[in-house]
């Protein structure tokens, strides 16, 4: 009996020992096989995480899982509820059983690697099994660099003022692995191309959808985007700028900077107007050169000639000469009126006519003065021969006084007074008995004739009834001999053209020149003796056909004005096209230097084209 009891105790002890060993064996055969890491967030649906638990020895009942701890990327322990596992017990066999858990997004917003530890326990296990979980939250990415090579061009509608603009931009999560949670936009600043902070500012915001709740945080799903509006304010001046703003989100590794290149340029009409002003200024200066300069030159010439004629009129006492000078002054007044009306060509023609007539008058005066001086010298030499005759001392004194008066008049440029005094001296000389004076009459001067001079004797002069008749070729010109000698003479005329030959038509003749040119009209004065003897010669130089030259000049000026107008139009077209393509297209136009450049562009192009036109005219029409 005793032995039986001992055998039973020994058997029970063996069974108890074998049970303990089996339990220990079961504990050591429960294994978990989680993956190396989990990606958060899980983009698949539904977002379920799990790992497999299995037993290598048989079925284990009452297995439960509990989260022991969770650490964030910085190693700080966070709430274990970040990993939620069902608390229900389960049975695990050799085929394995998945342990399912979820992640609370509130604790995994920050990108990085999270570490978690889950404890597996069962009633049949003496020691629980620890399972390590690695959860990786990759940082979200945004398409901020998409704007690096993009430029937005803004138009400044009024020069000198600031500008603003609005652009639409889609902010996209580009990693396709992580949502952009609680996305915030921060306003930035605007810098110019030298990195200097500009007065402009940037404001922006998301375009809300109807489904978005007011005040709710903005979340952009992985791989998707949301449209936002960027407002650029108070950009001062034209040029190149960089606008910055910032995107912040717990899903990002720091604050993301988004940059946008902004170009500000003035409206195209302003550079066009500036180029046009440059061309117009060049054309206006050329107009002044072509019009105001001739008008001013005419004014100066008119004033000089008018003063000279008035001075000559104040010195003459001859009625016919005074009338001739009055006609010259009338012509000058006509030229003055034409010049002030802008008819510069006709004014120049009138002025040239007046100048020619006055030149002839001055030449005649000079020749008459020379003759008077010669006559004074001749009379003085003859007087010297009678100085010893006491009976004629009174007559000689009178003649000396008259000759001195004539010399003083010549020194004062009063030729008519000198001529009168010489005539009176001649009369006094003739009162002396012939046997004493031995000869009578005043010796005439026959001086060589040069172009532009008038050859006069004391008694004869050639005049033209209508000085303006010389302006036109093939028009009759009336020549007249003016003399104070009442004797009968014959006149032989030479008109200076080969076809005219020699005529004897009296004191008044009419002649028509077939061609324009300069001619010398000469008259030979013969007495009526037989055979006739040459008494004196007088001549006058004239220019015929001045109107033809004037018409040619007017036509040249009209052609020049037409060419200038054509060149100005071409300058506007070329300067606009080239200037806009070179200085405006693709550029940030609007600085003071830009405006100065296009202004000089238009001015210089017009001036250059007109310079080429002048060269062309000189080569093709050198006599214009």
Please tell me about this protein's structure:
The chain has 624 residues and is of the alpha+beta class. Among the domains are: 30-137, Immunoglobulins (Immunoglobulin-like, Sandwich), CATH 2.60.40.10; 144-267, Immunoglobulins (Immunoglobulin-like, Sandwich), CATH 2.60.40. Helix content is 39%, strand content 29%. Strands 11, 12, 13, 14, 15, 16, 17, 18 and 19 form a nine-stranded mixed beta sheet that branches. Strands 2, 4, 5, 7, 9 and 10 form a six-stranded mixed beta sheet that branches. A hairpin with a 7-residue loop joins β9 (112-121) and β10. The longest helix has 47 residues, at 269-315. The model is unreliable at 20-28 and 439-458 (pLDDT under 50).
Q: CATH H-level name of the domain at 144-267... which superfamily?
A: Immunoglobulins
Under CATH at level 1, the class of the domain at 144-267 stands as Mainly Beta
**Runs with pLDDT <50, length 5+?**
20-28, 439-458
CATH architecture of the domain at 144-267: Sandwich
Percentage of helical residues?
A: 25-40%
Helical segment count: 9
Mean pLDDT: 77
How does the overall form come out from the CA principal axes? rod-shaped
Radius of gyration: 61 Å
The end-to-end span amounts to 163 Å
- Beta strands, count: 27
Query: Beta-strand level of the residues, as a percent range?
Result: 25-35%
SSE topology sketch:
Blueprint: H1 2-28, E1 30-33, E2 38-39, E3 49-55, E4 60-71, E5 77-78, E6 83-85, E7 90-92, E8 97-103, E9 112-121, E10 129-137, E11 151-156, E12 162-172, E13 180-186, E14 189-192, E15 197-206, E16 218-220, E17 225-236, E18 239-248, E19 256-266, H2 269-315, H3 319-340, H4 344-384, H5 393-411, H6 415-430, H7 434-437, E20 454-455, E21 460-464, E22 476-483, E23 490-494, E24 502-503, E25 508-512, E26 517-526, E27 534-544, H8 546-584, H9 592-620
Parallel strand pairs: 2-10, 11-19
Antiparallel strand pairs: 1-3, 3-8, 4-5, 4-7, 4-9, 6-8, 9-10, 12-17, 13-16, 13-18, 14-15, 14-18, 15-17, 18-19, 20-27, 21-22, 22-25, 23-24, 23-26, 26-27
């Amino acid at each position: 009996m005793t032995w039986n009891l001992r055998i039973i105790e020994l058997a029970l002890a063996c069974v108890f020992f074998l049970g303990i060993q089996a339990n220990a064996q079961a504990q050591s055969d429960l294994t978990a096989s989680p993956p190396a890491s989990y990606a958060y967030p899980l983009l698949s649906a539904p977002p379920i995480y799990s790992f497999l638990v299995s037993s290598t020895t048989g079925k284990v009942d009452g297995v439960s899982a509990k989260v022991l701890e969770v650490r964030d990327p910085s190693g700080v322990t966070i709430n274990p509820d970040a990993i939620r596992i069902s608390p229900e017990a389960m049975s695990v066999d050799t085929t394995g059983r998945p342990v399912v858990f979820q992640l609370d997004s509130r604790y995994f917003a920050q990108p990085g690697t999270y570490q978690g530890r889950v404890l597996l326990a069962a009633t049949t296990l003496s020691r629980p099994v620890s399972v390590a979980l690695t959860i990786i939250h990759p940082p979200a990415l945004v398409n901020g660099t998409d704007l690096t090579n993009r430029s937005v061009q803004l138009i400044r509608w009024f020069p000198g003022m600031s500008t603003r603009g609005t652009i639409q931009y889609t902010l996209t999560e580009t990693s396709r692995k992580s949502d952009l949670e609680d996305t915030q936009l921060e306003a930035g600043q605007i810098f110019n191309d030298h990195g200097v902070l500009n007065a402009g500012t940037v404001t922006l915001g998301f375009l809300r959808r109807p489904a978005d709740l007011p005040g709710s945080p903005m979340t952009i799903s992985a791989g998707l985007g949301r449209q936002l509006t960027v407002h650029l304010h108070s950009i001062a001046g034209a040029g190149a700028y960089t606008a910055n703003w910032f995107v912040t989100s717990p899903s990002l590794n720091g604050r993301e900077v988004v940059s946008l290149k902004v170009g500000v340029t003035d409206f195209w009409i302003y550079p066009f107007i500036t180029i046009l002003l440059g061309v117009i200024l060049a054309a206006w200066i050329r107009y002044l050169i072509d019009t105001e300069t001739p008008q001013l030159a005419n004014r100066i010439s008119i004033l000089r000639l008018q003063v000279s004629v008035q001075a000559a009129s104040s010195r003459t006492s001859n009625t016919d000469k005074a009338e001739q000078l009055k006609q010259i002054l009338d012509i000058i007044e006509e030229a003055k009126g034409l010049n002030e009306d802008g008819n510069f060509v006709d004014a120049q023609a009138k002025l040239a006519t007046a100048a020619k007539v006055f030149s002839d008058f001055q030449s005649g005066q000079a020749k008459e003065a020379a003759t008077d001086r010669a006559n004074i010298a001749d009379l003085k030499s003859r007087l010297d021969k009678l100085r010893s005759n006491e009976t004629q001392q009174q007559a000689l004194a009178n003649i000396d006084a008259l000759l001195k008066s004539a010399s003083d008049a010549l020194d004062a440029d009063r030729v008519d007074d000198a001529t009168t005094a010489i005539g009176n001296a001649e009369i006094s000389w003739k009162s002396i008995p012939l046997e004493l004076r031995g000869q009578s009459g005043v010796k005439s001067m026959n001086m060589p004739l040069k172009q532009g001079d008038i050859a006069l004797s004391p008694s004869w002069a050639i005049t033209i009834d209508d000085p303006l008749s010389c302006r036109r070729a093939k028009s009759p010109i009336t020549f007249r001999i003016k003399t104070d000698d009442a004797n009968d003479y014959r006149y032989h005329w030479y008109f200076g053209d080969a076809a005219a030959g020699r005529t004897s038509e009296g004191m008044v003749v009419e002649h028509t020149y077939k061609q324009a040119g300069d001619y010398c009209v000469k008259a030979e004065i013969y007495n009526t003796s037989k055979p006739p003897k040459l008494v004196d010669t007088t001549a006058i130089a004239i220019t015929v056909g001045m109107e033809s030259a004037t018409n040619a000049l007017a036509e040249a000026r009209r052609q020049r004005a037409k060419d200038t107008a054509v060149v100005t139009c071409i300058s506007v077209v070329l300067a606009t096209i080239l200037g806009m393509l070179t200085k405006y297209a693709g550029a940030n136009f609007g600085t003071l230097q830009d405006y100065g450049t296009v202004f000089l562009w238009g001015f210089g192009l017009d001036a250059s084209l007109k310079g080429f036109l002048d060269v062309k005219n000189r080569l093709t029409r050198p006599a214009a």
